[in-house]
Amino acid sequence: MEFIPVPQRDQVSTYRSLRSLFEKNITVNSISEVLASCNVNDQALQIRDQMVSKDYDVIGVEENGWVIGYVLRDDLREGTCKDYFRSFSPSDLVSDSTPLLQTLFIFKDTDRLFIIEGNRITKVVTLADLQKPPIRMLLFGVISLVEMHLYRIIREYFEGEGWKSHLSDKRIQQTEGLFLQRKARNEGIELSDCLQLCDKRDIVLGEQPLRELLGIESKSKGKDFFKKLEILRNNLAHSQDLNTQNSWNEMITLIEQTEKLLEACERI
Fold first, then answer.
1. Which SUPFAM superfamilies does the protein's record reference (predicted)?
2. What are the Cα distances from residue 100, in Å, to 32, 119, 232?
């Protein structure tokens, strides 16, 4: 089947506006913590004890009122903090206005980031902060946008309920059952409104022209991607750890792939 999309510029524009909200308006500041600090000449063992009591893995090191570097709790031994402090590298630092999604991608290459406000380093973000609600809201929003786009594309691509050919009888029955429940609540919907993410996945992957337009190399790779996306979505919905089954890097790579899928959806 040749895909001749129905022009829906306003709808795509709305989706882009939502995406911009998630990608640009939620910044790294929403998950950052104030960076505690010590003096460069403080005794290292005393500072380590303080860090243990407050459960800090990293704190800043000050000299003449300016944070000039940082120390890690596990490094500290005899001597002063000057013996153990690490200077900031450009890759350690981000502006306080850095979008949260961009911050997430930076964490593929680091365990912590320090936040610059004006001309001072004032806050820190670690991997543990990626479990916070703003990150969960961001990721759930991105996944929801994927579902919204897939729904739009399916409605444009198929005539009537032609998408049913890609679903099992059981999935069709479940979709129809949900449809009847929602109709009973007097909701003005169509049957396709009741498709779940797994249904949209099977419908899209079952059509080679759609796979090509969305940049999905094969059915097997598409199924692997969507399976991971569903696991992440379920972890988000049930407040589970985001990296329960995968490493942080694998989760971040999944979101990078999701971003590419969204870009392909917007081009259609």
1. CBS-domain pair
2. 10, 20, 18
Angle at 240 between CA 235 and CA 245, to 5 degrees: 70
d(Cα 194, Cα 179) in Å, to the nearest integer? 6
pLDDT cut 90: percent of the chain above it: 76
Where would I find the beta strands (DSSP E) of the chain? 33-34, 37-39, 58-63, 66-72, 86-87, 93-95, 112-117, 120-126
Question: How far is 266 from 13, CA to CA, in rounded Å?
Answer: 9
What is the predicted pLDDT for the residue at 17? 76
Longest dimension (CA), the chain: 75
CATH of 32-128, one of 3.40.50.620, 1.20.1560.10, 3.10.580.10, 3.40.640.10: 3.10.580.10
List beta partners, residue 66.
63
- Asked if the model's pLDDT at residue 4 lies above 90, the reply is no
CA 215 to chain centre: 20
Decide: 70 and 59 in contact? Cβ < 8 Å. Answer: yes
- Put simply, whether the predicted model's pTM sits higher than 0.70 gets the answer yes
Label residue 7 by pLDDT band (50, 70, 90): very low
- Tokens 């005899």 — which residue? 78
Q: Higher pLDDT residue, 109 or 212? A: 212
The mean pLDDT of 20-29, rounded to a whole number, is: 82
